[in-house]
Amino acid sequence: MTPSTQEVKQALELADKEAAHLRYSRDTLQALSPDLAWVVGLDQRPDLAEKVEAFVSRFARLQDHLGEKLLPRFAAWVGNHPKTMIDTLAFAERAEVLSDAQGFLAARRLRNALVHEYMQDPQLFLDSLFEAFSSCRLLFETVDKVRVETERLSRA
């Protein structure tokens, strides 16, 4: 069954909200200029740890929503029915709503490091955090490109 235009637009609206929250969390953390000492000190600063948790949660939630809801619904809406996440990402790349499928997968792999490593390996966590900051751009661009393409196809 192909999703309706309304279902795609609803998934897009949720992605917009999630992206706005992620952008806020990313900008808040970046403004704190995290370094290795900052990461090591998270154990003593629950207020900062909570900001990290919010960022990580929002980063993961937007990825999940894009990969499991928005991109598959968009693909089905335009007549493509990918069976796997890899197929969905390959379609999205061909449709030019995702600029880098491998980058999207790499961002998904960051989740484990962001969730677990600051407790065990502060340097790996810091590196992963900076990589996640950069990966946000890909997620935001994907939401924007799906919006533009959805609007264009809705008018056609």
Structure write-up:
The protein has 156 residues and is mainly alpha-helical. The chain has one domain (5-155). It is built from six helices and no strands. Helix 1 runs antiparallel to helix 3 and helix 1 runs antiparallel to helix 6. The longest helix has 34 residues, at 122-155. The mean pLDDT is 93.
Terminal CA distance: 22 Å
- Most strands sheet: none
Shape: elongated
Low-pLDDT regions: none
Proportion of residues in extended strands: under 5%
SSE run: HHHHHH
Number of strand elements? 0
Q: Roughly what percent helix?
A: over 70%
Count of the domains: 1
Q: Look at the structure and give the mean pLDDT.
A: 93
Main structural class: mainly alpha
Q: Nearest-angstrom radius of gyration?
A: 17 Å
User: How many individual helices?
Assistant: 6
Can you describe this structure in just a few lines?
The chain has 156 residues and is an all-alpha fold.
Give the SSE layout:
Layout: H1 5-31, H2 36-40, H3 46-77, H4 85-94, H5 101-116, H6 122-155
Helix pairs in contact: 1-3, 1-6, 3-4, 3-5, 3-6, 5-6
Core attributes:
single chain, 156 residues, mainly alpha
